[in-house]
Write a structure and sequence with these properties.
This protein is mainly alpha-helical. It has one domain. The protein has five helices and two strands. The longest helix is centred in the middle third of the chain and has 29 residues. It starts with a helix and ends in a 15-residue tail after the last helix.
Length: about 160
């Protein structure tokens, strides 16, 4: 009987704690300057790891397999994303706070495009244009590795 209470209590408490938070810490700034340095070093290490991973795949016998080809494309896209995000963080430091204004509700921040660095900052904030395709390629690679079809119209064997 205690097992059933535990199975229902823990998820209920987790839902309550995440539904009514006192504050949202999902978006945080890094303490200057050490936090930004560590974050940027993380981008460099992640990019280096992804380039090394892609190179090892391409130089091995795995390069001939379709799934591993997708994996290497995803790794290269992640490496490019890290470089893109790295430059975006540098541009963030170059933008004066006076180039930002508050919206009518006061909740959103609006970037007023006054200088070329503002336009670059805006473009480099679109890092999801590299990150999302990287995730999709890795997803497709993993799906092929497990033997599942990536074609939604294909009739697979569900008897496993």
């Amino acid at each position: 009987m205690k097992k059933n209470v535990f199975l229902y209590t823990v998820p209920a408490v987790a839902v309550l704690l995440t539904t009514f938070p006192e504050s949202a810490h999902a978006i945080q700034t890094h303490g200057a300057p050490e936090g930004l340095y560590v974050h940027q070093i993380g981008h460099i290490l992640f990019a280096t790891a992804m380039v090394g991973f892609a190179m090892r795949i391409r130089r091995s016998r795995l390069a001939d397999e379709h799934a591993w080809h997708f994996m290497s494309i995803g790794a290269i896209l992640f490496a490019l994303w890290n470089g893109w995000a790295f430059l975006g963080h540098i541009l963030t430091e170059l933008i004066p706070q006076t180039d930002f204004s508050r919206g009518s509700t006061g909740l959103q921040s609006i970037l007023d495009l006054h200088a070329p660095v503002d336009v670059l900052f805006y473009l480099f904030k679109m890092d999801h244009l590299l990150c999302v395709p990287a995730l999709i390629f890795i997803y497709l690679a993993l799906k092929r590795m497990t033997g599942q079809s990536t074609d939604p119209t294909a009739q697979g064997d569900d008897s496993r």
